[in-house]
Amino acid sequence: MKFKAPVTKNEEYEVDIIDLTYQGLGVAKIEDYPLFIEDTLPGEKALIKVIKVNQNFGFAKLEKLLTKSPDRVENIDKNYTRTGIAPLQHLKYDAQLEFKQHQIQELFDKSKMDVEVLPTIGMDNPTHYRNKAQIPVRSINGKLQTGFFRKHSHDLVTIEDFYIQDPEIDKAIVIVRDILRKYHIEPYNETKHNGVIRNIMVRRGHYTNEMMIGLITRTKKIPMVDIIVSEIKEALPEVTSIMQNINLSDGNGLLGKSTVCLDGKKYIEDKLLGLKFAISLNSFYQVNPEQTEKLYSLAIEKAQLDGTQTVIDAYCGIGTISLAVAEHAKKVYGVEIVKEAIEDAKINAQKNHINNTTFITGSAEDQMEKWQAQGLKPDVIMVDPPRKGLASSFIDSAAQVAPKKIVYVSCNPSTLVRDARRLAEYGYEITQPVQPVDQFPQTVHVESVTILERTQND
């Protein structure tokens, strides 16, 4: 029998918003059929228009709010919603923190896992926190423009104040944009795959104020490059590094394989938990330094290190967690698949006169198997994996080397819960409440620290 939805495309309905999805969309139900609606909040009554009908759910757009939630923020800039820069900006900040706690708690509850999730640790000022920007450059009406793509498209929305970025980065983007305009540098054309400048990337040290400008180009050469570099330096005294990354591909990948230093150093320096870090153009470095310090301090504190332990830091990046842990451990091993990040990690160990770390290039799952074969016996494994979570082979190898504790720093609650279930099969249980930390205010993303301890011995 063919399914017939209780709603019709392009029809309007009055609905009650009953929930918020993990993507920040309001949820309404008509005869148990869920509809997802942007810019709506639980407790609101809304007039909506259905725009898409699927077998199990549909999407609608807000036509008019009939009653508003007390948690709604008025006078927001719609461009931040259209581009996905700040999808939760319409929700008051304390309610955002509750939403993030609830998101993690609900996933554990659905998995029938008896886990307590603590209130989310937030920021005093939940705006202008990002220390890195990568901004597309395109031609609009024949003029070089910077901004951000409208969600699910490559239509550029021109934006100068990005709301969640360090304001000095926003200023720098406008200055670089105007210099590129002045010298008639051709923006990249996605349809014809021609033009020169694809993206402007800016990094800024939170504590040092050192700034890096990265010009991502479709061509190996930038016309008038010397004079452009000279004008950038004159207009932005904080700039200590100007880099060019050459991306010749026709795809959507941000960075190409070749990076050239146009002026200054190949990296900027910043501090984290009192340690110095060299950050190159394509290093992974947490974008919210203030919250990262809280996140890593928590991970170290919850690991309860006393200087006698051997620690493995999987997915170690440029060594931020490894080097912060090193003063509390006997020995730290870091592994990371990005070769340049491991080179940075080794430099960072030298910069901080830390001698009890070893950094290896490789995938965390392969290296874990090698360490297991070599008989390495870590007391603690710390993981800070990408959104896809831990590979099954990593979990198998980690369980074989049998650390007493696994400290899981997660950026994706659903893969955290999945991995915690897998680890439970090997006798690892969550022994402390999970602590969410708001690394990305105004967005739906949430980081958290979870401690798993071995409760049974083979």
Our Rg estimate from Cα atoms comes to 24 Å
* Portion in helices: 25-40%
Q: Tell me the strand percentage band.
A: 25-35%
How many helices? The count is: 10
Number of strand segments: 23
Q: Major sheet, described briefly?
A: 8 strands, mixed
Coarse shape = globular
How far apart are the first and last residues' alpha carbons, in Å? 53 Å
Folded structure, characterized:
- By secondary structure, the protein is of the alpha+beta class.
- The protein has 10 helices and 23 strands.
- The strands form 4 sheets. Strands 16, 17, 18, 19, 20, 21, 22 and 23 form an 8-stranded mixed beta sheet that branches. The protein has a 7-stranded mixed beta sheet with strand order 9-8-7-10-11-12-13, covered by helices on one side.
- A hairpin with a 2-residue loop joins strand 14 and strand 15.
- Helix 8 packs parallel to helix 9.
- The radius of gyration is 24 Å and the shape is globular.
- The N and C termini lie far apart (about 55 Å).
- The model has no long low-confidence stretch (mean pLDDT about 95).
